[in-house]
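Exam revision sheet. Question 4 asks you to relate a sequence to its structure. Input first:
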Amino acid sequence: MNSIPGENQRTSMRYQFEAMPSSVADWHRQNRQDEMGNRILHFQDGGTYPCRHCLKEAGKEDGALLFSYRLHLPDSVYAQPTAVFLCKGACTRHIGGTSVPEIVSNRFVALRAFRENGLMDYAMNTLSEGEDVGDEVERILANDEIAFINIHTALAGCMLCVVRRN
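Answer key, structure tokens:
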């Protein structure tokens, strides 16, 4: 197989980085409280915030929303609400792929590995600099017992995205 020199190559492992569903993003943009009953906060201070829908830095010009979000995975005792940012205005949902999203590649992150039954595999969890996440995902998913990985910010612990096998 020929390849382009310098091309970022991944193994034939099939997985994708997943963003928050558009229905969830739209719902939060239209409401004043999140599903936990907390007021949805608006930030428009010129800073950037990691949007969980487009998986890009957001907010610099249009602002960002901050709210509590209950993850759909895992569906187990490890399920927990997490604080998340979202572009205040409409943005295009990140559609899968093995390329590490912007909001992951530029942060120190925690990768939390889960089995299909929703239980965490502590031995597979790791901390990583964002630019190394692709290699860490490959290493974790080489274990066939791992169904998905939740990626969180390492310091604050906020959820960024899910990596799921195809």
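Marking note for examiners. The chain has three helices and ten strands.
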